[in-house]
Amino acid sequence: MDNQSDNKKYIFGSLFLLVNKLQAKGDQWLAGKEGMTLRQWFLTAMIMYSGERTPALGEVADLMGTSHQNAKQVANKLEKNGFIEFSKDMKDRRVLRLTLTKKSTEFWKEQEGESNEFLTNLFYDLTEEELAVTKRVINKMITSLENLNK
User: Measured between alpha carbons, how far is residue 126 from residues 8, 18, 24, 122, 123 in Å?
Assistant: First the structure.
């Protein structure tokens, strides 16, 4: 096997390991905080990131890189715990829109210091250059994955 092939396999497997460890550490960090999980955090972050005040569930699912059904399952738990509200789209009643509640906004404001500390600790050993390269590589990999579907 050539070195490039070995590196690709190593990176591919390591990404799974990284995701699993991030999920475990993120859930550990959020443990005991209103029953929040990292996937629920990610969904609320995607609502904020969408730029729309009330994005559609399908749009949020696309931003998360997951299915409509998986996003709906996570959203249902957030709605049950009072972090988001569902509403029907005014033009197309089949479209479900998501809105962060006041409880959610206050919760994340309270967590901001701990969130920053978590990220600081996670990326502690990386230089600005390494962070920039990592960001570029991840963006290229996401684009490659999107192009595989075409």
Answer: 21, 15, 21, 9, 5
* pTM summary value: 0.83
- Listing DSSP states for 72-117 in one string gives HHHHHHHHHTTSEEEEE-SS-TTPEEEEE-HHHHHHHHHHHHHHHH
Non-local CB neighbours of 41 within 8 Å, separated by 6+ positions: 26, 30
Residue 21: HSE in the Cβ half-sphere, 13 Å Cα cutoff = 7
Q: CA–CA separation, 44 vs 83, rounded Å?
A: 8
Residue 79, domain CATH: 1.10.10.10
Please tell me the distance from the alpha carbon of residue 73 to that of residue 53, in angstroms, as a whole number. 21
pLDDT digits (tens, 9 = 90+) for 84-114: 999 998 888 888 999 999 999 999 898 888 8
Domain range spanning residue 64? Answer: 32-116
Question: Considering only CA atoms, which of 71, 74, 101 is closest in space to residue 87?
Answer: 101
Our count of domains for the chain comes to 1
pLDDT for 1 equals: 57
Distance CA 6, CA 12 (A): 10
